[in-house]
Amino acid sequence: MLDKLVNIDRRIIFALVAAAVVISLLMSFSLPVPATPPVMGIYDKINDMPPGSHVLIAFDYDPAAKEELQPMAIALLHHCYSRDLTVIGLTLWPGGTGLAEQALTSIARQYNRKSGEDFVFLGYKPGVASLIINMGENLYTAFPADFYGNDTKTLPALQGVESLRDLDYVIDLAAGASIETWIAFGKEKYKFDMGAGCTAVIGPDLYPFLDSDQINGLMAGLKGAAEYEVLVKYPAQAVEGMRPQSVTHALIVVFVIFSNAVFFASGGWRTVRRGPGARR
Amino acid sequence: MNRSTDFWILVGTLIAFTVINTLFFAIGSFKINWDSFGIVIAVGLTLAMYSFLYKDNPAFKIAENLYVGVALGYTVIITWYNALKPDIYDPLFVPIFTKATEPEYLVIVPMILGIFMLMRISARLSWLSRWSFAFVVGLGSGLTIPNYIHTFILKQIEPSMRPLFYGGESIYVSVNGILVLVGVVTVLLYFFFSIEHKGPIGVASKIGIYFLMVSFGASFGYTVMGRMSLLIGRMIFLLRDWLGVLH
How far is CA A86 from CA A54, A83, A120, A130, A219, in A? Predict the structure, then answer.
């Protein structure tokens, strides 16, 4: 019996996780999603900005990270548009253009915001660090035209913005190492306030930047997105995802305890200790 | 299970998928438009990718290769319309032929350096790429080294050197400061290999290992959360957009 449990087919675990997700999505119950200080940092910053302030959102992710970062982007845009802030969108990832444009335009429609006047989508440019430095020197040489081919110098949404120094806030939504790049070549060089949103996988690597005040807020993973959705009173996919997230986390804790119990009960630890390097 | 059983499972799944979607179109759950076809294709590809959890199979292989091809094609098109066309073609080539404005001849320099990079495909001309790489490495080092030292070393040292008590702060802030300090020192000692890890150094490096273990645990926890989020997102899509059982 113990042998069977030790060598359990991993597909059974996959099936249990899938069942936990589906059942918890279909069942109607809610769990509290309290906002944590790192997420509050971004919310408070945007809330305190006067109407017309310029917020740059970098959509540095692609469809592989859509489930975590797109809800974050949508919640942020709801907040920015509802506060009459001017949003400047761009992406350092070619795969992020479609998602960024979809988020910017679909939420703008709900608030009657016009492209070029109330928000602008600059599109994608390669270069990452050199592009950030270019934007820090002159935004219009980095992006002579927006995503739709309009001359950026003529866009009302960019009035008063010459470079990154003129921005009131920059938020990088990242699935890779772009937050570090934005900090090193943008924030530290051109001195603007910066917040970040990231996938859960890279979240732990970014908390030191919060501690050193190099970013004033951080949303990590679906949990960060859910907290922001609650703060802006727009509960959507991220809040909905918190039920299965909690259930699957509990299930994985049970798996870890159960597998360790089976491992020790089956005497597997003796085999490990007899392995190379073990004391005899 | 043998290959024959796997084959029939695959065929059965494909037939079930076709029947379900045909039924959705027939009863009007899906209207005949591009959005509906898009959902059906996305569902098919999602299921094909997850079929790998059962076993490697042709449906997974097709979806995997399709993803690579589509991603590459999309990147090429986006790069053309967002970078090559506005930065090279429009300012340099269009004015040469239309005579409407003065061509920006300065663009030729980076364009040639870019073309040199591609010369690596030729054994005879690959030496030209060294000029481009020399430019990239020289520029990159000059930009990166001072910025990285400032951002990732000097600025990161600050939080570990903050005073523990400067009045007005809560006790948790001071405890946090002590933890950061102890963590930094003990982990650095663990990676200090010039002294044998015995006595007080051994104890400190052992504490460093515990800090590292907590860090690895936190990273693993976040990774689990990230992977589950991807699964949840896809499940919400399947249950809401496809099956319509979630609102």
Answer: 5, 9, 8, 25, 21
Q: How far is CA A263 from CA A10, A266, A272, B210, in A?
A: 16, 5, 11, 23
Residue A95: domain span: 37-235
Task: Identify whether residues A110 and A226 lie together within a single domain.
Answer: yes
Contact A245, B232 (CB under 8 A): yes
Q: Tens digit of pLDDT for each residue in B126-160? A: 999 999 999 999 999 999 999 999 999 999 988 88
Comparing CB atoms, the residue among A124, A199, A211 nearest residue B82 is: A124
Judged by CB atoms closer than 8 Å, whether chains meet at B158 and A212 is answered as yes
- Residue A279 domain-assigned (yes or no): no
Q: What is the pLDDT of residues B159-201, one digit of tens each?
A: 888 777 766 667 888 888 889 889 999 999 999 888 888 899 9
* CA dist., res. A225 & res. A73, Å (int): 8
Gap between the Cα atoms of B80 and A269, Å rounded:
58
Return the closest-CA partner of residue A244 out of A2, A18, A14, A12: A18
Residues A93, A60 contacting (CB under 8 angstroms): yes
Q: Answer yes or no: is A70 within a domain.
A: yes
Residue A278 falls inside a structural domain: no
- B232/A201 CB distance under 8 A: no
Same domain, A258 and A175: no
Residues of B with CB below 8 A from A189's CB? 147
Tokens of A163: 């470079």
> From the candidates B67, B68, B76, B228, which should be mutated to test the interface with A, based on the most A CB atoms within 10 A?
B228
Q: Are A175 and A258 within one domain? A: no
User: What is the reported pLDDT for B163?
Assistant: 79
Structure token pair of residue B100: 């409407």
Helical (H) or strand (E) element with A16: helix A10-26
pLDDT digits (tens, 9 = 90+) for B154-166: 999 888 887 777 6
On whether any CB of chain A is under 8 Å from the CB of B75, the answer is: yes
Q: Which of B86, B158, B222 sits opposite A221 (nearest CB)?
A: B222
The label of the residue with tokens 């990154």 reads A164
How many folded domains does chain A comprise? 2
CB distance B235–A248 less than 8 Å?
Answer: no
Residue B161: closest C-alpha in chain A: A212
Residues A60 and A91 in one domain: yes
Once rounded to an integer, what is the mean pLDDT over residues B201-208? 94
Contact residues, chain B, for A211 at CB < 8 Å: 159, 180
Q: Are residues A25 and A47 in the same domain?
A: no
Quick one: A103 and A13 in the same domain? Answer: no
A11 and A122 inside one domain: no
